[in-house]
Amino acid sequence: MNMFRSVQSAARATTMAIVTACGLIAGFSATPAQAANFLQKQIYMTGANYDGDLPACEAALGDIASRFAQKESRYWNSDLQILGFDKVRETAFRPWTKATIPRRFCSAVALISDGRWHKVDFWIGEDTGFIGASWGVEWCVVGLDRNWAYNPACKMARP
């Protein structure tokens, strides 16, 4: 009998703890959000600090070729590779407001190992590389965007 009462009291204590925790969570979530104070704005929330110093479009071509071959091999079981680029040109630089991440939009035509030429749309962004330490590149090969990440026809890789 005593064992039954101790199990019952433990269950009640657990139930009360859960109810109390739920009440505290509900109480804290009901408080309105507050704006940052003066000190937080001056120290922690400094805003965008970009230079806009990005390499030319040609600087990203090696990364695009190696990542394309890696993607085709790893995800699509294909041996397609980019053999070369032609008609590399910049299409836009910082097309949006100054507070956004600086991007250089480019396009080129790539010769794929299947013998066909495909348009490549890509952008180079400041601080978008590995852990934000340098510039990064995002790209799309028209006709070979198999997972439709930039669909339709790589339109989402352009400005």
Topology:
Layout: H1 2-29, H2 38-43, H3 61-76, E1 82-93, E2 103-112, E3 117-125, E4 136-141
Antiparallel strand pairs: 1-2, 2-3, 3-4
Helix content: 25-40%
Number of strands: 4
Question: Separation of termini?
Answer: 75 Å
Taking the sheet with the most strands, its summary is: 4 strands, antiparallel
What overall geometry do the principal axes of the alpha carbons give?
A: elongated
Strand content: 15-25%
The low-confidence runs, each spanning 5 or more residues with pLDDT under 50, are none
Radius of gyration: 27 Å
Average predicted local confidence, pLDDT: 83
Strand sequence of the main sheet, in spatial order? 1-2-3-4
Number of helices: 3
How many domains?
2
Structural class: alpha+beta
Order of helices and strands: HHHEEEE
Task: Describe the protein in words.
- The protein is 31% helix and 23% strand.
- By secondary structure, it is α+β, with helices and mostly antiparallel strands.
- A 4-stranded antiparallel β-sheet has the order 1-2-3-4, with helices on one face.
- It starts with a helix and ends in an 18-residue tail after the last strand.
- The model has no long low-confidence stretch (mean pLDDT 83).
